[in-house]
Amino acid sequence: MEFKFPEGGTPLDPDEIEGLLIPTISTRYELDTFEFENNRRASEWVDTIRTSDILVEPFIRKLHKKMFGDVWRWAGKYRTSNKSIGVFWEMIPEEIGVLLGNVHFWVKERSIPDDEIGARFHHRLVSIHPFSNGNGRHGRLMTDLLMEKILKTDKFSWGDANLSQEGDMRARYIEALIEADNLNFVPLIEFVRK
Ligand SMILES: Nc1ncnc2c1ncn2[C@@H]1O[C@H](COP(=O)(O)OP(=O)(O)OP(=O)(O)O)[C@@H](O)[C@H]1O
Ligand SMILES: [Mg+2]
Q1: N or C: which end of the chain has fewer CB within 10 A?
Q2: Rounded to the nearest 10 degrees, how much is the dihedral formed by the CA atoms of 171, 177, 179, 185?
Q3: Residues surrounding ion ligand 2 at CB below 5 Å
Q4: In 3D, which of 123, 170, 10, 127 has the Cα closest to residue 74?
Q5: Burial bucket for residue 22 (CB in 10 Å: 0-12, 13-18, 19+)
Q6: Do residues 22 and 35 lie in contact, with contact meaning Cβ atoms separated by under 8 Å?
Q7: Which fold has domain 14-191?
Q8: Residue-wise pLDDT tens digits, 151-174
Q9: 26: pLDDT confidence band, cut at 50, 70 and 90?
Q10: What is the number of the ligand closest to the CA of 7?
C-alpha cells in the first residue's frame, strides 16, 4: 500500500505502514478520516488534563498517542529512522529535553513576547520531527496547549486554514517555518495570528 503525502509532509517507510491498526484502510482519504476522528477525540481529552502535565517529556509522547493511537501502532513512540526533515533519530530525546528546558526558561522569564514563545516552540518541535508522521498536527496542538494553558493567552489561528491540506496557506506556513530555520521568526509569528 502507498499513500501520497502533501508537500512538506513526511512519507512513511514500508515498516511504518505495517503499523496501520485498521486493515480496511486503503486510500489516503480513509486514512485522513480515521486520523481526523482520532485527533478530534484527543482534542476533547486535552480539555480534561492538568496544566502542570504539559511541558514534560512524557506528555509530548502521550499527546501523540492520544491523537494517533487508534490508527498507528507506533503512535506515541519516537521515530527510529531518519527523514528528510528532522534531527538524526538518535538525538530526538536529547533535543526534546533541550527544547523543554528552553521553553521553561522563556515562560519563567517572560522576556520575549508570548507569541514569539509559541512560534519558537512550535518551530523547534516540528523541526526536531520526533515522530514518523503527524508532527504538524501534534506540534500545532502542543502549541495551542502552551498558549492557552501555560501562557494563558489565545491560541493561534494558524492562518484560519486546515494546514494539513495542500494549498496557499500550507505553502505560506511551510515557507514561514523555513524562514524560522534561518532564525527569522517574523513570518511565522505573523502567519499564526492571521
Ligand atoms: N522545512 C521545514 N522545517 C520545519 N518544519 C517543517 C518543514 N517542512 C515541514 N515541516 C513541518 O512538518 C509537518 C509535516 O510533518 P508530518 O507529515 O509528520 O506531519 P503531519 O501532521 O502528518 O502533517 P500535516 O502538517 O500535513 O498535518 C508540517 O506540518 C510542518 O509543521
Ligand atoms: Mg504527514
Answers
A1: N
A2: 130
A3: 9, 133
A4: 10
A5: exposed
A6: no
A7: Fic-like fold (1.10.3290)
A8: 999 999 999 999 999 999 999 999
A9: confident
A10: 1
User: Among the atoms of ligand 1, which is closest to the Cα of residue 137?
Assistant: 21
Hey, how many other C-beta atoms are within 10 angstroms of the C-beta on 57?
12
Give the number of the atom of ligand 1 that is nearest the alpha carbon of residue 181.
3
Residue 1: how many CB atoms within 10 A of its CB? 11
For cell 514534560, name the residue. Answer: 56
**Which amino acid, residue 184?**
N
Instruction: Convert the pLDDT of each residue in 110-119 to its tens digit.
Output: 999 999 999 9
Q: Which residues contact 89 (CB under 8 A, 6 or more apart)?
A: 78, 79, 80, 81, 82
Residue whose CA is at the smallest distance from ligand 1 atom 9? 8
Contact 124, 55 (CB under 8 A): no
Residues with CB under 6 A from ligand 1: 6, 8-10, 85, 126-127, 133-137, 139, 163-164, 174, 177-178, 181
Continuous segment of H or E residues that includes residue 180: helix 168-181
Every domain of the chain and the residues it spans? 14-191
What are the C-alpha distances in Å from 170 to residues 6, 16, 161? 10, 25, 8
Distance from the CA of 147 to the center of ligand 2, in angstroms?
A: 23
Q: How far is residue 109's CA from residue 32's CA, in Å, rounded to a whole number?
A: 40
